[in-house]
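Researcher: We're teaching a course module on how sequence relates to structure. For the next exercise, students receive a sequence and then see the predicted structure as tokens, so they can try to spot secondary structure elements on their own. Here is the exercise chain.
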Amino acid sequence: MLAKKVINRISSLSFHSPWFIIIVFSVLGFIGIINHSMWRDELNPWLIVRDSESFGDLIANIRYEGHPVLWYFSLVFLRNIADNPLMMQVFHLTIAIFSVSIFCLYSPFNYQQKFLFTFGYFPFYEYLLISRNYAFSMLFIFAFCAVFSSRKITYIYLAVLLGLLANSSAYALFVSFSLSLTLLAEFCFDSEHRQQYFSQTQKYDLFLSVGVIIFSFLLSIYIITPPVDSYLHGGLDDGWLIKLDIRHFLRSMGRLFGSYFLILPKQKWLDLSICAGIALFMFFLTVIKLAKKPFSVFLYIVGNCVILAFTYLRFFGVPRHFGHFYLILIASLWLGSQYQESSFLINKFHIKEKLFTLVQKRYHIAFMLILYAHLFGGLYGFTRDLFIPFSASHETANYIQKTQLKQEFIVASRDANMAALSGYLNRKFYYPELKKMGSFTLFKQGRIPVEQAEILEQIYSLFKSEVATKRILLILNKELKLTHNNLKISPIKNFDRAWIDSERYYLYWVYEGSSQ
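Model: And here is the predicted structure for the students to work with:
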């Protein structure tokens, strides 16, 4: 009876109801998430939570990751419910559904724009299927925009959301910082808002809110600052660029272009220049569009400049990172609808009324082009994941379990690419990079990259030391090209159907004895 009532309720929904978008997104998201094969970046945090020996050890391990604590603390809670990484996927799906629900129910965009955004690349693929901490960015940014009007009475709600956002990821910290500066700018320069706030709030509200934000920022910065013995520096091993490099700047601008149109320009000057030019055109078009909403302009400029500066000085990033340019755009347009119009910027920079009116009319076309580009990207990414596994980890783990190989002594390399298998099988492997049993990977002193010859030599030593007495199951993420005079090696099965080429797996039996 309950199922029948639910079906009848859904069938009675209008196709133009935001709930229709939410329900379709939820159903497709569930199908996608249970089909998705997780990879190392998804399961390495799960393993850190699972195998850290104490709370202090957990914090120490997180600091090598280059991410704040919120995602890891969430995984601690989930693991107490069920020691199965499927819980992480369900939780991630829930985050995505809540994010989209807030957007569809409370954002000022029209129905078509809500539909296109929801099934776009970032909500429908990058921040839905791939279970990472970046999905928190959507949730907390949209929640911030939805309760933005509460600042007239209290800043506590916004402060808590900014604190959570700051402890989601490094890029979320940049967005949180930009939103905080926007609140500060409004508080300092909008006397009417300031008077309204003080007339309705408690005296401690401002100090408590500022305290929450400052504490959250300091905690995030402390955690994401890598320890001295980290040699990957949380994935930022290229150092800082402190000189002027035009090509490098154009490549950085290409990330802004990529966040809008999902295309990354090549290394050629012509490609870089055209894409940077289009990105700058969209940037200034948006500024003019928001010109009568000065604080939205402030957020848009500061948010983009902060992320662009990090992109140029430190790390180009990949879509999940520079997708925050896109979220800044959405947040700026959203908050723009909540501010009263002001002619301050129009008069200050002598923007002609004709130009402003023209942009107001034509901006819709540019914005719709971005949304359609994201729709195609989202449908492509989601569909591809249904038919081509993101990683071969799930298929490999299923084979190992079905053939009862899970209890064998397993040597696995490269360790960083074996986190997915360790997570799915819920056990540790012997890692040649560490010369001991392990599960997650931390790029710090003590871990030494190894070649296949060294792997085979360590296996031979394991037989000699009687750690393994009969046979060893060897799992590699690259096909074995060598032999060893004192080992017999027999191929078992290859799992090379995966979108990520570094997570294709090759299984071998290794026995002690002459290979002749």
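Model: If you want an answer key for the exercise: The mean pLDDT is 94. The longest helix spans residues 353-387.
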